[in-house]
Every structure is written in structure tokens, then in C-alpha cells.
Amino acid sequence: MDDNGICYVEEKMVRETNLIFLGGEDVSSRIEISKKFIKLGYNINIIGTEKEDKFIQNSIDYEQYSFSREFGAFSDIKSILNLRKILKEKEENTIVHAFDTKPTIFLPLASIGLKNIKVSRTITGMGRIFTEDNLKNRLLTKVYNIVQKSIKPRVDFTIFQNDDDAKYFSQHNLSAEDKSKTIKSSGIDLQNFSTEIDKSRVEKLVEELSIDKSQKTFILVSRMVKQKGILTYLKAAKLCYEEGYRYNFLLVGQLDTDESIKLEEIEAYGDFVNYLGRREDIKELLSLSDIFVLPTYYREGVPRVLLEASAMGLGLITTNMPGCKDVVTDEYNGKLMEIENEKDLCSKMIYMAENRDKLEIYQKNAKVKVEEFDLDRVVENYHNVYKKIGV
Description:
Helix content: 40-55%
Oligomer: single chain
Shape: globular
């Protein structure tokens, strides 16, 4: 401790801590939080399946491993063995923190018998098998529970992004109560959304997308997965047109795999919705929009897109699903809609677009609410978890 009362014992501990973030094809979303931990003195490494370009640009050590989001016994075993080989080479005093469903399962399995690392994980939602109740999903749920129980002893700490997921794990004895905690979302760096948008670029987009500025603009950003409510959004947009409301409707995101909405299904609503595919200018697209819509019935942690839309001051419409209801409070910063109900969504779209004073209140409150999910808060909570784990 120095003359100012600053303790350097903890700082020394942090500087000697190697922290690895493990994910899949969107692991670059951990770059922002990595930079925060680098400032705290951690040695950071990221492992995922993306190309290395973004990590090189941000001067972050990165390694690739084989991974497929879809289930396959051979490919999954290959991923686990590949990951184990990488982990074996890591130094002592290393914490590996996994995100997303499969990496959070693979990590404990890959680390069995390895004494050089501690295992931390964030449950970023419960995934597709908890979305629809059918025989296949009931069987997969049983398998999921069995696997989670089997890896429980190898997990040093489990972080949940919403209370519903934490409750499920507790009820089914899938995680240790004294080794788990709810930390809402993966955080969002609000400073990135406080900078001015290039108005000329936005105006160019308005012209390019034929946006009618006299009408409100709705936007949905998501992978084109059925359970994200894509069709509900498309149908609701059509209903709005049929009732005489010619709002601007934007749909943004890449086509997915087997669970994807087909391109021809989207194009069938081309007279009502402008589908833009995958885009890199999300911030600019949000800035020209008024209302963000996420009709999901997918079991997510806390949808990042809702946080980004909140940070940009958009009114919100989403479902009363775990994670979504953590961000949106009905009649405060938006509206909660019924799952797979395009008529309900249509009515709420019209309500928000036509009640402009109310929409302005929602938009203002969205920017207030999102402060609860600021990245600095998440970093502080994660830092406390890592200190509790100890290495």
C-alpha cells in the first residue's frame, strides 16, 4: 500500500493473471471487454473460429480452433480435442472464460485433468431446444441436463445473463449455488454510442434505401432464424400497409443454416419490407430509425441488439421472453408483444408510430435504462468473479 492508500497486492495478482475468452463465430464481440481487462493488467488471449483480421487490428492475441454451431458427434469431439491441445500449452495462472452454448460445454470437457487453468463460463441463453415444446426438444433437453450435470464439477464459476436461466439451472441442480451469479448481459460500451454520427453518410443511406422521412422507420436486426420472429415482423409490416400505414420497414441480418428463413420467404414481402442482408453499418442504420422490433421467442441471455438500439435512443418492441423483458419494461421504454402474433405486433407498431409524444418518452427512457448494462459495470463484476476463483 502506498501513501495514498492504493494497494498494489491486487494489482500484482491481476498482472500475473492470464485471461482467455473462448467463443465461436462471433467471438470478436469480446474485443471491447478484452481491451478493458488489458487496461486492468490482465494478459488477454481470445480463442474462436473467426478470421484473425479484427484481432490483429486491435492488437489482441488470437487463436483459431475447429468448431461447428450445429450438432455432430465427430465434429464436436474434434473440437474438444483441438481445444484441449490448445489449453495444454497455456501457462499456469490462467482463467478461461467461455461464452455461448457449445463452447461453455466444450471447455469443461476439454479441461478435464488440466491443472493449469480455471474454468469460467457465461450462459448466454438456453438456445433453440428450449424454444419450442416438441418430442425432439424434450429429448434434447434431457441430454442437455445430463451433460450439464456431468461437467458441473469441472466448472469453477457460472455466470447467467438473466434470472430465468439461473432459476432453471438451480431447480435442476446444474450449477453450484456458491459458484454462480447473475450478471445482466455481456455489457455494452456506451462511449461507442455517444459519438456523433456522420450525417452525410446517414443522408446518403436515406436516399439509397428510399426512406420516406415523413413516416416512422422500423428496424429489425438479427440472424434470419425462424425463432427470432422474422416472419412475424414481415407479416405485421404487411398488415400495417393493409391498414393504410406506409411506414418504412428495414430488415437486417444474414441468412442462417437449417433454421433460417428462406430468401424467397423474405422476398415475398418485398413490397413492404426492405431486406438489406448482412451489414457493417448497423450504427448508421439505427440512427435513421425510430423503433426497433425484436419479436423473438428464442431463449436468449440478453439480446445485444436491444442494448444497441437503446443506446441509440430507439423505442423498443419485443416479447416477454427471458432477457428481452430484462431490457424492455412495458410502457416505459417500449412495448411487450405476444409471441408469434403479427396482429398484436401490428397494433403496437401503429400505437408507437402514431403516438409521437409517447414514443419520445420511450426513446428517452431507453437511453436511461441501457445504463444498467454499461460495459464498465460488467467488467467490474467479472473482475470480482475472477478474484473469487483465484489462480
